[in-house]
Design a protein that fits this description.
Blueprint: E1 12-15, H1 21-31, E2 37-40, H2 42-58, E3 62-69, H3 73-84, E4 90-94, H4 97-107, E5 113-117, H5 125-130, H6 137-151, E6 155-157, H7 160-170, E7 175-178, H8 197-202, E8 207-209, H9 212-215, H10 220-234
Parallel strand pairs: 1-2, 1-8, 2-3, 3-4, 4-5, 5-6, 6-7, 7-8
Bound molecules: cytidine-5'-monophosphate (C5P).
């Protein structure tokens, strides 16, 4: 992938998890220049977010389309082919081995970073067990990371708690993106496996996703700047 972070700002991914494009646009206006990548996730996708994501890309922003694809191989391959045409920088795929291979087949050499979602950072060992898996969350994360590398994925979405162990499995070229990031003193919300921005970077994350502590702040720009300062201090 050609997008290599040049500075601390480039490493901050801000999810636009709001109900409307108008609200998302306001957040982009407020945080322009202090955020590296805007993430358009499921909530906004169902409210005009796909067109908005393309608009942001046309304006020169880096965009992360968080669609977490999971379907039969042909559908995933064809979906990735179309996402390539949207000018996105990152897109997420659930880290099932054959789903990832199907996604890579749809790339056809395009400059789009496919990220495998190992285990959602809102899930702990109990949730993984309840979902029918025998091992702990960390074991599932590791086996999915190995499969992602073998499939030729561009990177992984993982908890910062797993980043240092994953760096070894993923190798130097795969990008590690860690959500579940909370500046000290802010609410964890529904995230269970959290770390501060500085700790996430020190643990080996290339990019961090930090949403509600910024989007819910009275001064969003200042909140984003504070996160960037923490990243910078950790580099
Ligand atoms: O507001 P908050 O910082 O918790 O937002 C985290 C974002 O990262 C959400 O958009 C969520 O969908 C996404 N995400 C996550 N855990 C993953 C993959 C994506 O929290 N494993």
């Amino acid at each position: 992938m050609s997008f290599k972070p040049r500075n601390a700002t480039d490493r901050l991914i801000l999810p636009l998890d709001v109900p409307t494009v108008a609200e998302a646009r306001a957040i982009v206006e407020e945080t322009k220049g202090v955020v590296g990548v805007y993430k358009v996730g499921m909530q906004l996708q169902f409210a005009g977010g796909l067109d908005f994501a393309q608009e942001l890309a046309r304006e020169g922003h880096k965009v992360f389309l968080d669609v977490k694809l999971l379907d039969i191989d042909n559908t995933v391959t064809q979906a990735v082919r179309n996402i390539v045409k949207m000018g996105m920088t990152f897109v997420t795929i659930h880290a099932y081995p054959r789903t990832m291979r199907a996604a890579v087949a749809g790339l056809e050499g395009a400059d789009l970073c496919l990220l495998g979602v190992t285990v959602l950072t809102s899930m702990d060992d109990e949730d993984v067990k309840a979902a029918g898996y025998a091992g702990a969350a960390a074991e599932l994360v590791k086996s999915r990371a190995i499969a992602a590398r073998a499939a030729g994925m561009g990177g992984l979405v993982c908890s910062a708690h797993e980043a240092s162990a994953l760096r070894e499995l993923a190798g130097p070229d795969m990008v590690l993106v860690t959500p579940g990031v909370r500046p000290a003193g802010s609410s964890a919300d529904d995230q269970k496996r959290i770390k501060t921005p500085g700790d996430a970077i020190r643990a080996g994350a290339d990019f961090i996703v930090c949403g509600r502590p910024i989007t819910g702040a009275t001064d969003r720009r200042a909140a984003a700047e504070a996160v960037v300062a923490e990243i910078e201090a950790a580099l």
